[in-house]
Amino acid sequence: MLFGISTFTFPWAVGSKDSNNLSAINLLNFAGNNNIGVVQFADNYPLHQLSIAELQTIKSIADNQGIIIETGTRGLTIENTERYIAIALFFGSPFLRMVIDEAGYEPGKNEIISIITQLLPSLKKNNIILALENHDRFSASTLKDIIDATDKDYVGICLDTANSLGAGEGVNEVLQILMPYVVNLHIKDIIIKRVDYKMGFTVEGVAAGDGVIDIPKIIQQLKSTGRCKSATLEIWLKPEAMVEDSIEKEKQLVEKSILYLKKHLS
User: Fold this and answer.
1) 31 and 67 in contact (C-beta within 8 Å)?
2) pLDDT score of 16 more than 80
3) What is the rounded distance in angstroms from the CA atom of residue 207 to the CA atom of residue 117?
4) What is the number of structural domains in the chain?
5) Residue 235 has pLDDT above 80, yes or no
6) How far is it, in rounded angstroms, from Cα 12 to Cα 21?
7) Is the entire prediction scored with pTM above 0.70?
């Protein structure tokens, strides 16, 4: 299983509007300097908004450094997915990571099945797997139903270790149902703390290995299927008062996480 980083490894730096903004080129160079062989571009760095020349530059730099590019987006519509299938094909991405929902758009299960069914000929023609991310409102059983109703060879799961808390499910529960379908793992470690007034909890991101997620166990479980080819580090960080401080703390968590994960991933 290959170790990768993404634009959600550095969400504060990527999303910054000032001079601290982390560009695609800088992200690729960071990966190269740290012997990381995969970089995933997600919806916080929308590739479709770049020019052909910019896309070619990213691909050239990645190729020169031996880095695999994985692509992602959000908004499971025919138009958006077809657009990103073409981008995935351009970069040679083995899958297209997809967050189904976007602002003002939350399709139901039957509609999702219908959309994916219409997309299957394009996915098959281009040999690209649609990797649905377990993102908030969808239960693991619902995602399994969607895959079983479409095509498990061309529709899989991008499994995030924390997102399903939004659907009332923990990662171990999700894995029991979705493990055979996982093509990409998003490693996101968290801590869960009871609030001061005792009636509720907060969930915060920490460096990989410092939280409640049993990362080595999950990696070994997914290695056993032979289908999950890459694991992507993501960082959730509560913002500091100044964006510069958030970016600096984020960098520290990333560096600590890389050291930890390289012990468990080849």
Assistant:
1) yes
2) no
3) 39
4) 1
5) yes
6) 8
7) yes
